[in-house]
Write a structure and sequence with these properties.
Helix content is 39%, strand content 15%. It is built from twelve helices and eight strands.
Length: 295
């Protein structure tokens, strides 16, 4: 597994699919998830469209840098944010969403890639938006999937999905895998695949079980704030994809993103929740393949 040291101070694990001579597509994963959540078959299908596909572990997940020296008391952090004491909350979190965006761009630099198509999912969509806002010269296109703008009025989880997201998981392997079935609450209802959810949980546990990182990622995401104003002046060609069955980031998050970005294309997929079911890969890859012909 290649690992690149990037200027933002992290070491980023990554792998690639396809030919380096093809247009690069950087896949940015979401909250608490490792790059293997971008299934290998999905990556191969996208690469078969003539794209050089790069997936990577965000900091504090997978095989990338862990910020163990900065433990976060999440109860105290949430209380501090809720009290409006933002500077104090910021002092608890060792990095920002911008730092996470700089990790991805730094990886491209380390690979000798000047510009790429950026495709982010969930929190990865927020990171991808941040890349496009702050470094549009590095982004050929932006695809923001099942994500939102950082505005509290849009893209909120249902109570049941929020409870499942923040419920502590057992530390033992069997318990962790069994608990992953709660994720079905936000999965695509028509295509819910419990065996697939359990398989990914097992692979993730065996590859890099690291629950401590999720608190810091969550803090960076919460403190990222609204990107609404910046999105209104975004010049990067933008595609927004969202599932109409999404209960973790409700579809208004995607609709609002497309509403704000000038010229953005919005695709709402029926029967898609907050996941990437294999049955919908052709639709997603068709859309991204067409979008990434733009330079």
């Amino acid at each position: 597994m290649p690992i690149a040291d990037v200027p933002s101070g992290a070491s980023i694990a990554y792998d690639t699919f396809g030919e380096a001579a093809d247009p690069p597509v950087l896949l940015v994963m979401g909250f608490g998830a490792q790059m293997i959540s971008w299934h290998e078959d999905f990556c191969h299908m996208l690469a078969a469209r003539g794209r050089y596909v790069i997936r990577y572990d965000n900091r504090d997940s997978g095989l990338s840098t862990k910020f163990d020296a900065h433990p976060v008391d999440m109860t105290r952090f949430i209380e501090t944010v809720s009290a409006g004491e933002i500077p104090a909350a910021q002092a608890m979190i060792p990095y920002t969403l911008q730092d996470m965006a700089d990790d991805g761009l730094g990886l491209l630099t380390a690979m000798g890639i000047t510009r790429a198509h950026i495709f982010g999912s969930s929190m990865g969509g927020m990171i991808a938006q941040t890349m496009a806002i702050t470094h549009p010269e590095r982004c050929l296109t932006l695809t923001s999937m099942m994500s939102s703008t950082g505005e509290s009025e849009y893209g909120q989880p249902s109570p049941a999905a929020q409870q499942a997201l923040f419920s502590p998981k057992p530390a033992d392997r069997a318990g962790y895998i069994n608990a992953s079935e709660k994720e079905a609450i936000w999965a695509s209802r028509r295509y819910t695949d419990i065996d697939g959810i359990r398989e990914l949980a097992a692979r993730s546990y065996d590859r890099a079980y690291y629950p401590a990182g999720t608190g810091r990622q969550l803090g960076a995401m919460i403190l990222g704030g609204s990107r609404a104003e910046a999105l209104t002046s975004l010049t990067v060609p933008t595609l927004v994809i969202h599932g109409l069955d999404d209960t973790l980031i409700d579809p208004r998050g995607g609709k609002r993103t497309a509403e704000l970005v000038p010229g953005a294309e919005l695709i709402l997929l029926a029967d898609m929740g907050h996941d990437r079911p294999r049955e919908l890969w052709p639709a997603i890859i068709d859309a991204v393949g067409a979008h990434t012909t733009r330079t």
